[in-house]
Please model this.
Amino acid sequence: MTTHFFGDTAVLLGRSLRHVARSMDTIITTAIMPIAFMLLFVYVFGGAINSGSDSYVSYLLPGILLITIASGISYTAYRLFLDMKSGIFERFQSMPIARSSVLWAHVLTSLVANLISLVVVVLVALLMGFRSGAGVLAWLGVAGILVLFTLALTWIAVIPGLTAKSVDGASAFSYPLIFLPFISSAFVPTATMPGPVRAFAEHQPVTSIVNAIRDLLTEQPVGSDIWLALAWCVGILVVAYIFAMVTYRRRIA
Model:
């Protein structure tokens, strides 16, 4: 059964990746907005923001990477919604394939597409002056956190993709996720925020994830932030996966 699942997932993943390859504008569009934010904050607002860092682009890059993922997963919900409406799911259910492989193919497609977008954003940041002396292990740590965060948000995206009544409804859920980094340590230190806003910013997942990535890239001691970041990512991933699978089983029942 395990071999059956992996084989089916691989075939369906190839199908989804071919769709993405024929529509590279989705990846480009996903990367454009975070890059626009990065250009805006560095070259327009950067001079007025005291981040306590010599390079503001290095300071805000972790937050921009999370915004890239949050904007990219909306396409997962969009593609899943289209598959549901086209009837292709019913055709798959009539075939001798592992049922969960259909969802996993969409999730892994999201992971691949988002990783490409993240690479594009990092390359633009390098052109803007981002530099890091982090070693291989630190970069692997950053990659691991970003992969977990992508999987967590993608499984959240599966739920509206299965339940939405319209295309706009399927993708609109990502807007609060894109906005969340703005109320965190992504762009300014939380110490500069008023009391209630600071309390929220310091106790939401984006801040610990941003801080962990920033410390890894700047070769600073990560302290408890990395464990908080991993706990948030894994916790969200587990809860989202359970709810997504329950929703999926109800839809195909």
Observations:
- The chain has a mean pLDDT of 85.
- The radius of gyration is 19 Å.
- The CA atoms of residues 41 and 48 lie 10 Å apart.
- The first helix runs from residue 2 to 21.
